[in-house]
Design a protein that fits this description.
Layout: E1 6-12, E2 19-26, E3 35-46, E4 50-60, E5 66-74, E6 82-89, E7 95-108, E8 114-129, E9 134-153, E10 163-169, E11 173-185, E12 188-189, E13 194-207, E14 217-230, E15 234-246, E16 253-255, H1 276-280, E17 296-298, E18 300-318, E19 324-341, E20 343-346, E21 353-356, E22 362-363, E23 370-371, E24 375-385, E25 390-399, E26 409-414
Antiparallel strand pairs: 1-2, 3-4, 4-5, 5-6, 6-7, 7-8, 8-9, 9-10, 9-11, 11-13, 12-13, 13-14, 14-15, 15-18, 16-17, 18-19, 19-24, 20-21, 22-23, 24-25, 25-26
Amino acid sequence: MSIDKKENIILSDNGSGQKITIGDKEQKPYKLKFSPDMFNAFASYNTFYGVGGMGQLTLSDIMGNHRLFLGANLLYSLEESDGVVSYYNLKRQTNYGISAFHYKTYYRSYNRNILSDRIYGGSLMASHPFNKFKRQDLSFNLLNIERDVYQTTYSGYYNQPQIFTGHQKLEGISTATFETQFVNDTSLWGHIGPVNGSRYKFNIEHAPDIPLTDISFTTVEFDYRKYYRFGIKYNIVTRFSGGASLGKNPRLFFLGGTSNWLNAQYKNLPGNLEYMQDMFFARYPFPFRGFKYYEEYGQRYFLTNLEFRFPFIDYIALNWPIPLAIGNINGVLFTDIGSAWYKPSLDPETGEDVYDKSFNALSTSSGTYALDDIKMSWGVGIRMNLGFAVLRFDTAWKTNLDTQEPKPVFYLSIGPDF
């Protein structure tokens, strides 16, 4: 229905009471029209992929009710490229979205072969905020994974390039998952992370056993964080998280390392854990410092973090050789305690997975009480806000409360504190 009514638009100054009439304007129905909010593009080159390009584009309407995102990392072929497109409807209290994606990744296997995974699928999403602090998220996801294996060999001389000796295309995996989470967040943030309040999340993911899908599982996970402020700049932070995975094909939780670890160290995984379903549907709770990536794993886990955060260096100014001023460097003392159990291993006779269901918190094998399946570390670190990112440096030592590893593990990473 068209609207022909015309009205004067009047601007009024509440202070002086003055009113200004702009004139007659014809009312018209609102028409959706997208305009760009953000655009960036980069060119790149490396010796593995060759020449490539990366770009991102975000569009929205003038009312902010509709949002469209496109992102791509284009390489020498579409199959090797990454891409994602998503649309969000933000008009009502419950937000809706739809997305489609395609990724290609390469990584080295435990036996030095190169694995190539092609991941593609789509998602339907909904998010309902109850108030400023609480919301319920829901998603339905379709995922397909195709894997290629490139066998490699090395010459007998040090630092010689690998030689590809074969190629094998493995059978792919298709799955459908439903995921929901309830989030409550009342935290207040400082310049390196949350400083007061609390936040928690309860998450359930279910992959039903239906035709045309290859795996079925149910994963439940909980994460609670509390921030205590003392004075203006001192904080004690506690965090507890835990989870379990059940069903026909239960998922794994990998403990060890920290998020965005730049000088990362990896623990070699047994060959039976490099299946596509074990890696892509696994969960990675962070941080668990003192340990490498993938060092602890199982279908059950808990992780506790305790930190004391304090101001370390307020301001440093250098004149020579380079004029440099650095400020707001924070320090942290921490301990991480966690465990992952219900570990799968490969039966050499049947070739099937068997599970170690035992859990021994303490051991007395050395004549004194010491931690066994429960793992622990402690350490120190510094934090610095660079303006565009938070730089973290941590030093951590393993301990079982009886002995301590003499050699620490160093973590250089980026991102705000948990």
